Structures are given as structure tokens and as C-alpha cells.
Amino acid sequence: MNRSDAEILWEVARVLARDAAKVSRVAALPPLLFFTDPARTPRPWETAARLPAGAAVVFRHFGRPDAGETALRLREVTAAGGVQLLIGLDDDLAEAVGADGVHLPEHALGQARTLAETHPAWLITGAAHAGSAFDLPGLHARVLSPVFEAGGASSTASPLGLEAFRASAAAASCPVYALGGIDAKNARGLIGSGACGLAGVSAIQAAFSA
Hints:
This protein is 32% helix and 17% strand. By secondary structure, the chain is an alpha/beta fold.
């Protein structure tokens, strides 16, 4: 029987999380991160409602005026489904909707220590790219991209490839998610790479569609 893309992605994500938990100080990270994007995921709550319990949504609103309304809708469906909700670069909004944490772009990683001190229960993740320094206090995990050829903001960046990703994950002092061009066809190649889980935008939306 053919397995769905959603089943494959979730299975691989859980294998990665299980393997990473054996060596990581952070054993409760969500295996799968669904990153929203106003252009590519205009109705993110629909995908969020179909994610398996234990996954997480990273809501990136990029200053859109409907950010508060969308965040509330996401909080409602994620809370009902046992899915965590992280807010991108907006700790005020995260507090307002009762989110589980925040995700910081690379230019804002300096906020991680303060956020960790003021919100010790939050999960704090941060973006990483080729050449990034991984030793930053306050972060529970980094999201390294693009692993493969990707769309969106990463479409002009050269993909790292599996070997470079594996080397970066091995050198990192915190768990590392894989992001960028990952789908059900290539996800299994990340098993054994050191990734603590999978992250994605369009591929996750497509896999967990109605």
C-alpha cells in the first residue's frame, strides 16, 4: 500500500527526533515544524488543524495587519490538536495569544538570552544559514537552511546538500532542524544526518492538505 506524503514526513521527523533525543539535552522538541508564509500559506490554520499532535507551527506574519487575528485562529486549532505554536519575531504577540514560544530570524538571535530568562517555559528556535555561528545562549534549537533547492526567500541561496548539513549539525552545540526543499521523496536521506527534525512550508502544506 502506498503511504501518503504526510505519513512519510511525520515518520521521518519522528525518527530524527528520537535519534537526536538520545544525545541532546533538549528531549522534548517537536519533530516537525510547519513554517507559515503570507504568500505561500494564506490560510495556515487549515494546515495547522491537520498536523499530528506533537508537531509545531511557526507563524511568521512579517508585519501583516491581520497578524493578531491569524495568530488567534492558529492558537485555537493548535491547542485543540496538541500542536505547539511559535510566533516569529514577535514576543508581544506570543504573550498575547498564549503561544508556546518564539522563532527568531538570524539577525535577531541576540534576543534569545533575554527571552529565555523572561519566559523560561518558552521554546525558542532561531534561523541558521551556511557559515552561521551555532553557539548562542538561550536557543533550544536552530533551523538550518536551505538543505536542498527551495522556494520563497531561500530560492536564490545555494543549497547546502546533505554532507554540509551533516557537518554543520555535528559541529552545533544545540539541536538542528533541516529546512529547505524537503519533501516526501528526499526526507529519508536526512536519517542519520544529525537533524533533530524536519521543517518546511509548501511541502508540509501540500502533504497535510484535505
